[in-house]
UniProtKB/TrEMBL annotation:
Keywords: ATP-binding, Nucleotide-binding
Lineage top rank: taxon: Bacteria
Disordered: annotated segments: 963-982
Coiled coil: none
Annotated ranges, domain HTH luxR-type: 910-967
Pfam families: AAA_16
Gene3D superfamilies to which the protein is assigned, alphabetical: Tetratricopeptide repeat domain (1.25.40.10), Winged helix-like DNA-binding domain superfamily/Winged helix DNA-binding domain (1.10.10.10)
Organism for this UniProt entry: Streptacidiphilus alkalitolerans
InterPro entries from the UniProt entry: AAA_16, P-loop_NTPase, Sig_transdc_resp-reg_C-effctor, TPR-like_helical_dom_sf, Tscrpt_reg_LuxR_C, WH-like_DNA-bd_sf
Protein name as it appears in the record: AAA family ATPase
Amino acid sequence: MVTTEWERAVTGRGLYEREGLTARAEQALDALREGFRSGGTDLGSLLLYSGEAGLGKTSMLAELRRSVAAGDVACTLLTARGGEQQRNVPFHVVRQLLQPALAKLSEAQRRDLFESWYDIAAPALGLTAPSAGMQSDPQGVRDALDWVMARLAVRQNPLVLIVDDLHWADLESLSWLAAFASRVPGLPLLAALAFRPDEMPPEGDPLLAADVASGGLLKLQTLGPDAVAALVREEFGEDADELFCHQCWSITGGVPYDLVTLFGKLRDRQLKAVDENVPALLELVAAGRGPAVAKRLEKFGPDTYRFAYAAAVLDNEIDPAVAARVAGLTPAAAKVALELLRDERILTSGRAGLLEFVHPTVGTAVYQSMLSQGMRTAMHGKAAQEIIDGGLGMAAASRHLLETYPDDDAEVVQQLRQAAREHLAVGAPEAARRCLERALQEPPPETERADVLFELGCSTLLTAPSITINHLQAALSTVPGLNPEHRELATLRLGQALTHSNQCVEAAEVTGAEVDRTPPGPGRVRLLAAHFMWRAFIREESDAFDRFQRLADLSESLTGDDAGSRAVRVLRAWDLTLRGEPSAQAMTFAESAFEGNRLAEGIGWTNTTWGFEIPGLLGLSYVYNDRLDLALELFNEAASEYEVSGWSGGHLVFANFLQGLVLFRWGRLEEAENFLRLTLRKSDRLGRGTPLQWDIVGVLCDTLLARGRVQDAVDLAEEYSFGPPYPPVMVLPDAPTLYGRLLLAQGRTEQAAEHLTEVGAQLDARGWHNTVWAPWIGSLAQAVAAEDPDRARALAAEGLERARRVGTNSAIGMALRWCAAVAEPQDAVELLRQSVEHLGQSPTAYEYALALVDQGTALRRIGRPREALEALGQGVEIAAQCGADGLLARGRVELVAAGASPHRLRSVATRVLNQQEHRAAGFASQGLSTREIAAEMKIGESAVGKLLASAYRKVGAGPEGLAAALGLEPPDLPDVSGTTEE
């Protein structure tokens, strides 16, 4: 971004009536410099200059640039400018910002700066060519740009980032800036962005909302008559007539750009600021505005206006030689035309010998003045060819190709398809979609139409499943159709898009129909696997038992080790798991997914044939069969692969959700809650109400219930509408079961019993008997126990029978605890002993702690306090380690009721604190303040507060009782009993 002629004219004078805006920018810049000098944090500021065309936004940014250059602390200045004709160029603004700074670094230095994000960010920034066939996740690219910008800010001088004409920024850059704005306050970075409010696209709304909340929105107004009079007298002398000054304000409306243009015209005609020249003002102002400028071009001859039109097509950063060729002019004729356009203040010099319009409104007017659509499209066509001939690639040429007339040109179709591939490779699916939609208008040859529709559908797979569905359906129905390989892939991807849009039934139907028309072979097996997979996700399946048997028959018939056969066996493992069949049988089928110690080729996390569903179902089979170690290893691998590949959208969110699920099942509840809350925030970027978000909300609600925070769980469910009506797809954990448990936890027992009875009937009809994934039967037993104890015991016994069929220790231990909850006291003790025995051999720490506390409570109630103390002590300790606050509180109450000595309570309290908590609590028990503890531990005061809050919660005492709870002597406090006020 360079200083234009009109900017120089304005900034050479004072910025009248802009003192407040200038001061705001100076304060932000001073705070950045001073904070950076003193090593502070949270230095960033965001300034948005909002105003209509000509109000001086560019001048404000120029003033900021001047202040940056004049400061005593060096800042790294990054500048860019949106272009009206370049909004279809992906990452155009981002590249302007970062390329100059990155060009100063060697490739090794850039790789060090980018770290693992290099292969993702470098193609988007135009630093390297993308790999062949690469399709970057847009969210991954945005995350990579976040990383690069943050690293630049913290590794070098503080950053000042300036973007002018933000309303014309390309979609990709604007979306990134809107998301990155929330990170600005935590970085040594000042971002100043200028835009026209009425032209800001919806993608900029989050940016505006964030800035309004922070008070950084700076609205520019027109100048008042006094400011205009001062400008006139500064320009033409203190003796300028009053009426002349007032008319300058009245005619221009106080718009700074119009004033500067008017002053230039007055100087050209050597007119003085006297009353007799007032009649000339209106004509001069009109002549300087965009429409009049464009009209004047007609008087300059064809060479001049063709050069101006070519410049308007190229937009800003105009290469004079390229403009001459696009205009069809000889170098000599182009030189004459250029000089005339300079003299008329239409074009001016930019950086590195390039040209630009003196103001964006002039460029817009010139472009719009091309009344002949044929001339406009012809020039765009020539511009595209210039870019192609210059070896800059189809993606760069595509913005011009989009503006040409459809002309049944097969070569243009190929160029647009290639441009779409290049856009996808850098994470710009919207740009790819525009190219492919334009290719359809050309139109393509009939033999290629289905392929273009297929590519169009695939381009939006990661970002817009509904659009993908329409195009892939069209591709599959087009005659002549796709080749067999593309047809299979189109069907599989259509199934994915339908499922991710809550249309599992349709996904199963589509793949089933394709199976019927596909001859035997690996392709048919892959389609069968997809068909069974989508069928498995349907919650209300009418012929579930028939599907179960057909899947069993298919898995037995496939003896090969190809990807399709392995996928079928993974589906069989998950089907057995959901149906509550023996765990050993399910795990045998799960083992076939591996080759050596890794997932077999063709069913990995980044495989484009299956998506993440097959390895995801494999990991879930481990989760619900007590192999949390294998599940976590698998899910960590998924997250790592997605991060390396830059798949930071739905894929990484899914992997993070699975990691959170394992943490919950493992009993690491505090860790699970933090992890799932972060994942939930990420899922909001994908849109509300997606099947994946239901999964996340469900497990987070389950975690909150386990932590004893019922109201938090209820509030979360209400916030995300987690309840009837349920999505037609399976949710982890089962959504209706969890909703019934929420009702029960709130004390709405009758409603819970009615709801869970209905849920159980539906799941039984579906053949899903897994008591861990959907523990409806144990919750129903508890709900009806008071009114119908016989039914409650029958339900619990049925749950135990189902759990024994599965055979895992966690399933059996949980079911035994349900039986104990509704049994007679003497019977309950034995049932809980068995429950503790089984759960002690499982990885589910929270369930183990729950059984121990229940066991201790039951022992106390039948008069066996010594044994109760042992179980309760162990249960409380594990509950604290899990972060199960509610269970911890209940266990402590039971310990007291069982007669635990203060020493015993202190011993338990001491053991449940982790090392950091114990150290912080020890300092606090000595009377140290939070600030003093922070200094001793070399951590922040807020971190100390969190540690102490956790310690108070775990030991069950506040500051005054902390020393006693830890078995320490209380601090010696000064005796103030005898003091009096003076």
